Amino acid sequence: MGRSLWTVIRRDLRLALRQGSDSLMVVTFFVLCVVLFPFGVGPESGVLERISAGILWVTALLACMLSLDRLFQQEYEDGSLDLLTLSPVPLPVLVLGKVVAHWLTTGLPILLAAPVLAVLLHMNGDGFAVLVAAMALGTPTLSLIGAVGAALVLGARRGGVLLSLLVLPLYIPVLVFGVSAVDAAVMDFGFRAQLLILGAMLLGALALCPWAAAAALRQAVD
Amino acid sequence: MHRFANPARFLRLATILLPWAVGVTVISLVAGLAYALVLSPADYQQGETVRIMYIHVPAAWMGMFAYTMMAIASAVALIWKHPLADLAGKASAPVGAAFTLICLVTGSLWGKPMWGTWWVWDARLTSMLILLFLYLGYMALQSAFDDPRRGQKAASVLALVGFVNVPIIKFSVDWWNTLHQPASVVKMGGPAIDASMLVPLLLMALAFKGYYVVVLLIRIRTEIAEAKIRTLRMAELHG
């Protein structure tokens, strides 16, 4: 089972690497979106500093959401999803593998880009470490929840818009605690509780989402 | 449970139940409204605005209740492929969404005089807003597929995933410091609300629940009739 998990991760990573630009596009979107804000709200460092955590998190959510259609869409169209569901390996394990690969190609680049953008937004230096920690705990949760949404909309009309309606409300808790952790660190309050809650959400999502996504995939290939 | 998977049996049962449900709804609604709007006292702090509570609180309860019913129906439909459970889930969603919207709107109207603001981003209000989005997502997903059965199944999975939110709404006022007051009716040590206000509140809650049952029965009956028409049309075409 562990080996199949590893195989799925390696396959998806290889596909992402060979097709090239996907992962880069997500980060480019993330960077561009963040760069829009100084134009939108004005370049005063006070304003930007105050809302920097919010900008980074909201943009990370959007970037993550936009990349979700990559998770299962191609497999659904070329039929390899049928083979995956027929395999003797439990489907939740395969889903988990795909989610890990998705996180490695979207969550991780976003995570790496975030501190650089935080500098551009004049974020207080105290917030950097917490921002990275919160994103390290939060972005895998986004990928996990997103996998459920992506599996549900397979074959739907206007799947992209629908996906945002399904997934964004479920992303709100991650956003709330992610931003509040960074804000607390910047203002010199304790941020441990928020990080623990983010960790708890990650564990909860890890326990539930692969099964929910697998159930949704089975409905899709029926 | 599978006794009720037979639509004909369900229809017979619905025909018996419907007049009773309508009766309970009308009587408790009239009594509740009279009691709530006229007979019950105004609050010593909030004055007359406290009467918003008699709509707001039952609507909030029903918003969560309808979602819970929808989630249970979805689980039953997914596990046992129970055809009527599908219809029950489908019929619950718009009613629950309407109740949730009523709860949010009345809450906002109540918040303006009491808290001085239409809206605050605290845990109770936000989680209720998420509930509304979950209802909307459920209904959108249901109608997004060419094959209605596929849409229904996908929506059922979503209903189960979204159920995580219901306990969060319930306990949000205990877990976080919110502007919204903590639970005062259903709590340890009995309700912290005087009988003169509790009675109309419960009457209104009964009326709302009765209304939900009435609409649910009518909607399921309509769905069954629609399915019949579809089958007849198909038979005619291929006849």
UniProtKB/TrEMBL annotation, chain A:
Membrane topology (UniProt): Multi-pass membrane protein
Main location: membrane
The keyword Transmembrane helix appears for this protein: yes
One Gene Ontology molecular-function label: heme transmembrane transporter activity
Keyword Transport annotated: yes
GO terms for cellular component: plasma membrane
Coiled-coil spans in chain: none
UniProt name for this protein: Heme exporter protein B
Annotated source species: Insolitispirillum peregrinum
UniProtKB/TrEMBL annotation, chain B:
GO CC term (a single one): plasma membrane
Cell division in keyword set: no
Ranges annotated as spanning the membrane: 12-39, 59-80, 92-111, 123-145, 157-177, 197-220
Annotated GO biological process: cytochrome complex assembly
Listed GO MF terms: heme binding; heme transmembrane transporter activity
InterPro entries membership: Cyt_c_assembly, Cyt_c_biogenesis_CcmC, Cyt_c_biogenesis_CcsA/CcmC
Keyword Cell inner membrane: yes
Keywords from the named record: Cell inner membrane, Cell membrane, Cytochrome c-type biogenesis, Membrane, Transmembrane, Transmembrane helix, Transport
Subcellular location per the Swiss-Prot or TrEMBL entry: Cell inner membrane; Membrane
Annotated membrane topology: Multi-pass membrane protein
Cytochrome c assembly protein domain location: 9-180
Membership in a protein family: Belongs to the CcmC/CycZ/HelC family.
Protein name: Heme exporter protein C
Organism in which the protein naturally occurs: Insolitispirillum peregrinum
